[in-house]
Amino acid sequence: MSDPAPHRRIRAQGSAQGPRVMRFLLDAPIQAERNADFGGPDRGAPLARALFAIDGVTGVQVVGETIPVTRAQGCDWSALKPPVAAAIREVLETSDAPLGRQADAPAATDRDAAMLAAVNEVLEARANPSIARHGGRVSAEAVENGIVSLRMSGGCQGCAASSRTLREGVEKMLRATVPGIRAIVDVTDHDQGTNPYYSGKPGASPGFFRPVPADAVCVEDGRIVIDPDYLAPRLGLSVEALEAGFGRGDIVTERLTGGASDRIRIGVRSPQRAWAAEILSDGTAHEIPPPQRRGASDEAKAALAKRIRNHLLTLPESGLPVTYGQLARALGLYWPGAIRRITTSLEATMHEDARAGRPFIAARVVGRGRAGIPGKGFFDLARTLGRGPQKEETAQAFHRRMLVASLRLDAPGPAPASKAAP
């Protein structure tokens, strides 16, 4: 008598796609080198036949070891999860090709559609939650013969670090998760944006256009009504937490300025996230990037960065460079955390200088070490901004070059006259 088949571990998790989608996670890919996107029962795919036989299942995707399942409106996941998990387990234990044999592989257009769905699932579940903390977003716009077109929006558009984010983060993640990708292309118009993350301005994001379902946002008697089931997951909340936040005043709704005169812009902001949409005169709506809001900490950092710049410009060349501690004391910052505030504000000046095409004035400040160079963060940020050390250039040589370049900046007031004096 043979040993019984091992019990497969299946975990259910919510999805960033919304409350109607539940992700069923296994410990290994469903079928090697195969992903799928089913809109109904597929004669050649046992998994699709089994899941669509369950009343209330309206969509099934397969992305590696993850099976996102979509439920019908009005159904309850508490009743659906057990039969869905049981169906998945039974198919995997009785079939060695749950998505169909290779002979039944879909046409190229179907494979591209399945890959597009798989890529967006990975972006929503793994990449965008992290990127959103910087005000940005990445979405897959199209797939053609295995070539994926990605568009960056919000804080990623025009950002100096966008290329590094795409190549070293997003692309590696997608290639490791979604099989069959031939190439990944960034189709973002970065020149059209105004670097919204670093400047605090909204910028133009032509690729950020996601239609809002017709019943999710509407205008009634001049009031804008938003379906909590639609809004809650976009703010990373449950419906109950959303309603409680509105009750406490932690979550606020506001009319936004800008846009055409025949359109209404609405924004909802929680302490952690923001969401915004534009409602057209015909009642249709689409999501737009929420505007950046400068908090009190941002204002304080900007004010300190300005003080630092003004102070460094007044120091004689013979007194440079100065250490972080000397700069903090010169500005009257003695309490714990002062050095951290100094380094953070110096990074803000580096962003400003990079946008303006100026040498880094932050090169005038160094650490106390024997090397007499800035901290590691200076060099890391310089690379991120596309102005790091040249090939085979040492940190000391790069810093010296930046320091000499920064000393060519004209100091305010009578500096030009004093330079001409013997």
Automatic annotation (TrEMBL):
Transmembrane segments: none annotated. It comes from the Bacteria. Gene3D superfamilies: Fe-S cluster assembly (FSCA) (3.30.300.130), Scaffold protein Nfu/NifU, N-terminal domain (3.30.1370.70). InterPro entries: FSCA_dom_sf, Nfu/NifU_N, Nfu/NifU_N_sf, NIF_FeS_clus_asmbl_NifU_C. Residues 19-95 form the Scaffold protein Nfu/NifU N-terminal domain. Pfam families: Nfu_N (PF08712), NifU (PF01106). This is NifU family protein.
